[in-house]
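Sat 14:20. Reprocessing the chain from the morning session after the first attempt stalled halfway. Input below, unchanged.
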Amino acid sequence: MEKETRRKFLTTTAVLGAGVAASAMPFQDKKIKNQVIHHVFFWLKNPSSKEDLNKLIAGLRTLEKIETVRKIHVGVPASTEVRPVVDNTFSASEILFFDDLAGQKTYQDHPIHLKFIEDCSSLWEKVIVYDVIDA
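Finished this time. Tokens:
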């Protein structure tokens, strides 16, 4: 009887825990119609320099202070499996989310963005930008 009670307790706890975890996850029930996603890839001049990478990442993180940036993700290549369709030659990337084209334009002209370019452009040899909206 004790085993059965313990099993019930563990099962109930697991189910309730999953429910609590799911309810804590952010849920966006409204899609932003004209949202702009700005994805930028950077190739450093000195790709083996941890100092240059850290400076670039620190510079990228300053961009989240721009009022029209709704969300930011800064990352480096993941150690995923090697496949012909995967390009992991870049040093770092950023993904920024804006409510609309006007917000993205504000970001482009913003003093924080211009300062980032001034401070960090000497670090990279190549930059590629992909800007997308919902189809």
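Residues 9-25 have pLDDT under 50 and may be disordered.
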